[in-house]
Write a structure and sequence with these properties.
about 0% strand
């Protein structure tokens, strides 16, 4: 129970990090800086997920393998969307 409370407080502490700290954590994790103009919440959520995954375990190898079948040529350190060519014929990604 104590470990869970510690994890909860660590995850809550992510909200207290500076934007520079969150950006540094993103860069360290993904090997590239976050997209320009990304909102703070999108920096906080992956940081919190990685804390939780480190403590409680991340995705199982079966899940990682299954996800890999959906994006077989994805780069290991950079998001897949960075490899898309920009052209007038390329459909836009939906904005959420």
């Amino acid at each position: 129970m104590r470990k869970r409370q510690d994890l909860d407080s660590e995850i809550t502490g992510v909200g207290d990090l500076t934007r520079d700290d969150l950006t540094a954590a993103w860069t360290k994790t993904y090997g590239c800086p976050p997209p320009k103009g990304v909102k703070r919440g999108l920096l906080e959520r992956p940081a919190a997920w990685h804390l939780q995954a480190k403590r409680l375990g991340g995705l199982t190898s079966t899940v990682e393998k299954t996800l890999g079948t959906f994006v077989p040529d994805r780069p290991t350190r950079k998001p897949a969307f960075e490899n898309l060519e920009k052209s007038a014929n390329t459909p836009r990604r939906p904005q959420f």
